[in-house]
Amino acid sequence: MTPSHTDPLPRFPFEAATALEPPAEWAEFREKCPVARVALASGDEAALITRYGDVKRVLSDPRFTRPTPSDNAARVADTESGGVFNSEMATVLPQHGEGHLKWRRLIGKWFTAKRMNALRPGMAAMAEQLIDEMVAKGAPGDLKAGLAFPLPVWVICDMLGVPDTDRDRFAHWSDVMLSMTRYTQAEFDAAQAEFGGYMGAHIASKRAEPGEDILSALIAEGVGWSDATLTATGIGLLIAGHETTANMIAKMTAMLLADRSRWEQLLADPSLVRTAVEETLRLDANAGVGMLRYLSEDFEVGDTVLPGGTSAMCSMAAANRDEDAFEHASEMDLTRSPNPHLAFGAGAHACLGQPLARTELQVVLEVLLRKLPSLELAVPADELRRVEGLAVGGLRELPVRW
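-> structure tokens emitted (402 positions)
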């Protein structure tokens, strides 16, 4: 499975036959070569880790974190700098130790269960409004453009105090910064500079006139963060807060409609919404590239000693289908509980916004089941088109009718 030093390395991420099916290599690598040498989009080499226990160990080890430009780590994107994974943002935000814990604590206060529950009525009302607008335009419709994209953008923009009318600009900047193959270094630099300028101006306005938002609170609490740290925080939250969730809303709906019996099961028992959301997160076959970790010292994983200086690519999506961790791992079980999947990562760098993502996914599914019980795919599931060349996976559109 692992090529010799004279053979070309397998390119990662692997290609899959359809947008909702996993690449065959995931199962092959988990079984035969759980720590494999692969080439990323940049051509740089990384150690691909695919088993559940191994992925969780690497992500949970506090010694290893996201690479910084000084690490000489593998570049994820095919640009000179390697894209957002290897960008200057990684040097601005604290990545280790007490500084990182303090940053997470301050941001995490905005993602508590209490705050998420308080947001539910507004999310539901917005979801209903967007669905009504989509229905008014007539079937078939694009559920990604009509619901999956605008809802999380509206939510995160409200939390950050930025106007969601700028959502097309955010989408463009995010698209460029998360790209692995589609944009040049100059285009990446321009998007990062424009996004930084936009967020810097927004932070200056919040210093002058604070609002009821995350950035105003961080300024008011006197944490002493520089404008650069606040800007990087705002950009990070805005990208993570809309791009991944927007894609996951569309993928979740597609996965549940691909086999209509799943949708019927939820219609018959809406109390399964929470476990259904977790199961779609676990079974997401189009999750993107994974999480890169820079191993600053020798580390044994999967009976392989990886030397210090190795870039480890942790495939949470492959790990989530590991039969050693999940019974009937390749099957969708809407009642599966517990479901300790790794879709949000693990350890100190696990996704900070996962309570928000979960809440949005649950609310959207609840509203869709209630308002559009007859919802179905408008094209065969194997004709759905994936977004290509992004670090996060998604569908280009989700054609539906009702």
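The CA atoms of residues 288 and 392 lie 4 Å apart.
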